[in-house]
Amino acid sequence: MKAVILAGGFGTRISEESQFKPKPMVELGGMPILYHIMKLYGHYGINEFIICAGYKQHVIKEYFADYFLHTSDITFDFTQGRNDMIVHRNTSEPWKVTVVDTGLNTMTGGRVKRIQPYIGEEPFLLTYGDGVSDVDIDALIRFHREHGKLVTISAYNVGQRFGVLDIDETGSVREFREKIDSDGNLVNIGFMVCQPEFLDYIDGDDSVLEKEPLERAAKDGQVMAYKHTGFWQCMDTVREKEKLEKLWASGEAPWKVWND
Fold it and tell me: Quick one: pLDDT at residue 80?
């Protein structure tokens, strides 16, 4: 099964860094957040990726063009008029990565539609290139196969940031209380599984994945939610990046399910 990663947006809310690179290439612990997402999938044996690139797509291509070189111990031998490169040790992942320029202004649904020729006729995984999680990919795929619908999304309770007011119908405040887990809203955090037939719901470049395609599929009874109760955090802002950096530096990053 292939994993499709949306990595083409402008990342305007983290423009401090995205002015120089696509948001999925913003580093977290010295590696792009895209790398962290791919490591999660790789932990579950998913090693073939299709990257839906757009804004500054050359940065993503150049990263993978140099990836083998940067993860190897190498001798460059220029003696006797030669230009030999001898690889002594390599720690690169066993990944097959297809980077597709899906357009600068293409919407999320349009980007997925554009990579249809690379998907084939098999189910595929789909997620966003700006969030890390410890989603159990094996359990997610198993859930998708069991219900037989076209799309599975991962649903997560984002919690409640502030304390809660308990107000009756007249506007009278009955109670001030601390937030609890059930106060938050369930949101789609990506980490989806899709049948290839779902692509028929996407019309073209202006199609926003989260709007008409998924809404129409849901009305047709073709979308199921896998409830994730572990960790998830997007990286939309510098504040969120700093939060994730602290977790990584602590050595206890919840999304690091891999061993190395």
Answer: 85
Residue 113 has pLDDT above 90, yes or no: yes
Pairing of strands 31-32, 27-28: antiparallel
Q: In the beta sheet, which residues pair with residue 228?
A: 156
Mean pLDDT of 143-151: 96
Q: Compute, in degrees rounded to 10, the torsion defined by CA atoms 197, 210, 60, 204.
A: 60
Of 80, 100, 78, 113, whose CA–CA distance to 209 is shortest?
113
CA distance 225 to 217: 13
Please state, as a whole number, how many other Cβ atoms lie within 10 Å of the Cβ of residue 235: 26
In DSSP notation, 61-90 reads: HHHHHTHHHHTEEEEEE-GGG--EEEEEEE
Rounded mean pLDDT of the chain?
91
Its pTM stands at: 0.89
Three-class DSSP category at 126: strand
- Encode burial over 195-209: b for 16+ CB neighbours within 10 A, e otherwise: beebbebbeeeebeb
Whole-number Å distance between alpha carbons of 143 and 40: 18
Query: Under a CB-based contact definition with an 8 Å cutoff, are residues 154 and 187 in contact?
Result: no
pLDDT tens per residue across span 204-238:
999 999 999 999 999 999 999 999 999 999 998 98
Q: Where are the beta strands (DSSP E) in 78-229?
A: 84-90, 96-101, 124-128, 131-133, 151-157, 164-167, 173-177, 186-188, 192-194, 223-228
CA 260 to the chain's CA centroid: 20
What is the mean predicted confidence (pLDDT) over 50-54? 97
- Given a cut of 70, whether residue 145 has pLDDT beyond it is yes
